[in-house]
Automatic annotation (TrEMBL):
Belongs to the small GTPase superfamily. Ras family. Keywords: Hydrolase. InterPro entries: P-loop_NTPase, Ras-related_GTPase, Small_GTPase. It comes from the Eukaryota. Pfam families: Ras (PF00071). The keyword Metal-binding does not apply. This is small monomeric GTPase. GO terms for molecular function: G protein activity; GTP binding. It comes from Candidula unifasciata. Its EC number is 3.6.5.2. It is an enzyme of class 3 (hydrolase). The keyword Hydrolase applies.
Amino acid sequence: MMYTHRLVGTRDEATLEILDTAFKMPQDTLEKHIRWADGFILMYSVTDRHSYQDAHKLKEMIFQLRGSDTPIVLVANKHDLLTARAVTEDECDNLAGEMDCPRFQISVAEGQEGVNEAMEELLVLIKRQLVKSLSAPTPENVAGLEKRSRFVNMKKAFKKKIVRSRSDTF
């Protein structure tokens, strides 16, 4: 199921489209969504080992389809139900370590603040990834920069020549 959420941060706002994969979908549809998304929040319940295993499987799919530098935030929900815990904190830490991503422990039952923090963090990671991809040297970018650099150098040299020739005549 797809949800839309408007996130108003301290510096800007964004509209997020959120795909809830708790509803089972065909593998090819899930892969299509993984290729489309800019980032991921993998949420599982600390009281449900199966949801933790699903988050781990999704992580594997994301890494396979998008690479390990894809923006991901790991969210452990139902943190308030400590006595019913089926997933240890060490397991949570290990999964976050495997993904090299931030981890949040929240309780949706206690309010939406933790969810908003996770979404804001994901937005920061997506922006960072976008800046990184725009500034990364690709063959096209490098060729464009070299051409521009040559052009700028020619322009500067031409200006110097004009300035010199004007000063020579006076």
